[in-house]
Amino acid sequence: MCHVIVTCRSMLWTLLSIVVAFAELIAFMSADWLVGKAKPVSTEDTDNGTGEQQEPYRPTLGIYGRCTRISHMQLSRRDTLCGPYAENFSEIASGFWQATAIFLAVGILILCAVAFVSVFTMCVQSIMKKSIFNVCGLLQGIAG
């Protein structure tokens, strides 16, 4: 009975480790870190060929990505373009955002490594009399 509980806990921990690693990666790639004020839609943008009212445009900025409005594409439903604004590391918005990018990247690497190792904890639970769970938990705390 005890072995079943340990196995279920390790499976849950493995699943949550993978979910958190992917969530961090998605947050890093997101362009929605700063969301600007809603800009009203002009009258010529209101009728986009379908007669539907478009929602106001909100510019967004992420660590290295942003979403901007494309004014010449008024006929399409998707008139915002999202993508990287930084071609290299020095073009990231500010020193604080550069530091954030570094810390998040290191944290994501650690979380991905722990998620990868956690899959193997189903078979091997200790190495050299050290619990893999304790070491991985410490790494997850550092990454957080």
UniProtKB/TrEMBL annotation:
Membrane in keyword set: yes
Alphabetical UniProt keywords: Membrane, Transmembrane, Transmembrane helix
Source superkingdom: Eukaryota
Cell compartments where the protein resides: Membrane
A GO CC term attached to the entry: membrane
Main location: membrane
TM region(s), chain numbering: 12-31, 96-124
Coiled-coil ranges from the UniProt annotation: none
Name by which UniProt lists this protein: LHPL2 protein
Organism from which the protein derives: Odontophorus gujanensis (marbled wood quail)
Gene this protein is translated from: Lhfpl2
